[in-house]
Design brief:
Layout (H helix, E strand, L loop, with lengths): L1 H17 L3 H13 L1 H23 L2 H7 L1 H28 L15 H13 L2 H14 L6 H26 L2 H8 L3 H21 L1
Helix pairs in contact: 1-8, 2-3, 2-6, 2-8, 2-10, 3-6, 3-7, 3-8, 5-10
Length: 207
């Protein structure tokens, strides 16, 4: 019985996590500017953000958010504001700092705590993730499914998300890949900043 639920969840999650979005943009930027280690720590934060969604779904907070448009709007605009901040910060960095292609591609300095929090906040504040997990826990998962089994589902989703982005980090953080992208200089930071700003606008007005 539970295998059917699990496979449905796994397939739905595969399509969701593979779709380009805030998590993908942030992890990619971290890999290119900070290397594989920065990407992996950010990926770990994204995975932890999944556990946050699972926790409030189990506690019924997701249902409350869906039934309170005003409260959901608060979450939505906070998330949009955070992505807007990241996008503007990225563009400002490209305008104020030296050429990005002069950055060493061998052993970049990584601050694990900051990288983790970046991934955690990016995923945890994403209202689209809230809607996705609300759908899983109200439509796909039966109310009769034991909480213990639902916790196992949640752990799988968090681990699978981390693994996906960790693998992306291993590829995007390779010196040869980073060096190729960094040759674009300031344009990479500006492009990533623009993408984050567009994602912020999409979340604010289309969620």
């Amino acid at each position: 019985m539970y295998w059917v639920e699990f496979l449905t969840i796994a397939v739905a999650h595969l399509f969701a996590v593979a779709s380009p979005g805030p998590d993908f943009a942030v992890v990619t930027r971290q890999c290119v500017t900070g290397g594989t280690r920065a990407g992996v720590w950010t990926s770990l934060g994204v995975g932890a953000g999944i556990l946050l969604h699972v926790a409030y779904c189990l506690l019924g907070v997701a249902v409350l958010l869906s039934q309170s448009p005003a409260l959901f709007d608060v979450v939505k605009f906070v998330a949009a504001g955070y992505l807007l901040y990241l996008g503007i910060k990225s563009i400002r960095k490209s305008l104020e700092s030296g050429p990005i292609d002069s950055v060493s591609t061998s052993q970049p300095v990584v601050e694990p705590g900051k990288a983790f929090m970046l991934g955690f906040l990016t995923n945890g504040l994403n209202p689209k993730a809230t809607l996705f997990f609300l759908a899983l826990f109200t439509v796909v998962i039966s109310p009769s499914t034991p909480v213990f089994i639902q916790l196992i589902y949640g752990l799988y989703l968090a681990c699978a998300t981390f693994l996906w982005f960790a693998l992306l980090s291993r590829f995007m953080g390779r010196p040869s890949v980073r060096e190729t992208i960094l040759r674009a200089g300031h344009w990479f930071e500006r492009a990533m900043g623009t993408i984050l700003i567009l994602l912020a606008i999409q979340i604010a007005f289309n969620s």
